């Protein structure tokens, strides 16, 4: 084993050992990490900015010391003086490896930018926002009536709109009088409607009749990505949507890694809270810029997130979520001000976080329940929000059950040898020829298949860079359909599979997808370890769904809904071949797209929906997979492709899966099969 320091890059997950003194940019290039540089490492362009992380990372098995990188140098100081660097950033061409280090490559330093696919789905929503505009005519001050301007504004709202109990923040009061006089005592007021605990609140005042609008944000704060949808509160229209990678990913790709980081490092939770809020503010600036609006017009925000993100965003240490009984600080809805969270929008903007269902079934699952309404369904529906931590709902009008299942980051392309996040150049669709066993594929950014004569020209700017989550699912399923992978998950030899794309790779075999080395590109393969990662992820997903079916007392469901940005890009046929979801007619397996984001928009645009989901969440019954004995049994069975015991009759009527197994138990066969232990 190398004694050189270990360098780990996030979000790609790529790692390698490098001698002390190696520039981070050099390490990134040798590992194929997507780190930009225009000036060739001379410290001029600043495209190679990186963020080092320090402390104990149990997920990666390293402890990063304060001196893991070389000291800040004159080149970095010169750039800092001229243009400024974000706190904590270094230049990858200047910082050199001195010890084990975890390096995050921020989105702006990546050549191939992440494609955040959490789009806003088209949806009819009853419009009843929390903030509305009211035009009023205010009585002018009178020597015989000593009341103040605010009191007369309140009176106008009561007389003309029957709105009582109105309050105002200091920053509005400070500018109210000149606005009233400029408008000739006619003004438009943005008023946030109160509730049983809070009065109506004046958010903004404009002189005369204001023809504009105010805005709200529906935010899906995921462990991997953050998506924000900017909505016109007067019309409900989504005027802009944008997304970014969650910058917390450098502390751990999965949730429990972040919980572990907070446990192992004294200021770990605070550090992650600061990081995600900074990322949130960057996203808000981005979406406001896209819509060409003033951020001060954003007066309402609704957040949905899983419990760990919920706590870290609020500045609550997630320690208790890392151990049984996984107690939340609060499972109720949370109402705050933007200023409480350091959000750079309207200073009095209201923030609403949907309630969590239980310890590992969060506000994002509540938002999915609001969007898809399983409690109002006549048939039995299974809703799976596919992500790093899958959240699963099963129910109908009778009852709704919920659980979470730790699928890990494999479905996001992480922990896969040629895996990557969804970005231009990533393989996202795959087909294998049944005769030649050769693959063809599509990449993000092009509609052409790789065997099209114009394919190379179409991808000239991006190249073929790796395999994203939807691509690896189709790849493994296609390999199973065409006899390259057997049911236990072993890749056969070239002779066993009849494919010249299979090659010996140590003690097992791998499958060649694409070789771009002649053009300076990557060699993209699927290894047996990759197959195992997908088996573990899909087994966790299926086991959670099957456990809920046990609790419901059923062996089949009427329909399946795949939620989440990732779920929207999964081929239902390939998902069933893998055994990710229960056997079901393919026309009964649908995608809800970003259902959590849709639920957030519903809660943003209809305050009555907030009341409804608060009640619905109280009625959902949570199943804790960690204490259910049958979960492990289902997991073992679901590790096979598609399953070791479940019959899958509907799938078998659509496709015939080969029955051969490649583990012959012999030591021969070009690396095929697992070695039999010698008896002693």
TrEMBL record:
<feature type="domain" description="2Fe-2S ferredoxin-type">
    <location>
        <begin position="5"/>
        <end position="109"/>
    </location>
</feature>
<dbReference type="InterPro" id="IPR027980">
    <property type="entry name" value="RACo_C"/>
</dbReference>
<dbReference type="InterPro" id="IPR012675">
    <property type="entry name" value="Beta-grasp_dom_sf"/>
</dbReference>
<dbReference type="InterPro" id="IPR041414">
    <property type="entry name" value="Raco-like_middle"/>
</dbReference>
<dbReference type="InterPro" id="IPR042259">
    <property type="entry name" value="Raco-like_middle_sf"/>
</dbReference>
<dbReference type="Pfam" id="PF17651">
    <property type="entry name" value="Raco_middle"/>
</dbReference>
<dbReference type="Pfam" id="PF17650">
    <property type="entry name" value="RACo_linker"/>
</dbReference>
<dbReference type="Pfam" id="PF14574">
    <property type="entry name" value="RACo_C_ter"/>
</dbReference>
<dbReference type="GO" id="GO:0051536">
    <property type="term" value="F:iron-sulfur cluster binding"/>
</dbReference>
<dbReference type="InterPro" id="IPR036010">
    <property type="entry name" value="2Fe-2S_ferredoxin-like_sf"/>
</dbReference>
<dbReference type="InterPro" id="IPR052911">
    <property type="entry name" value="Corrinoid_activation_enz"/>
</dbReference>
<feature type="region of interest" description="Disordered">
    <location>
        <begin position="661"/>
        <end position="680"/>
    </location>
</feature>
<dbReference type="Pfam" id="PF00111">
    <property type="entry name" value="Fer2"/>
</dbReference>
<dbReference type="InterPro" id="IPR040506">
    <property type="entry name" value="RACo_linker"/>
</dbReference>
<protein>
    <submittedName>
        <fullName>DUF4445 domain-containing protein</fullName>
    </submittedName>
</protein>
<dbReference type="InterPro" id="IPR001041">
    <property type="entry name" value="2Fe-2S_ferredoxin-type"/>
</dbReference>
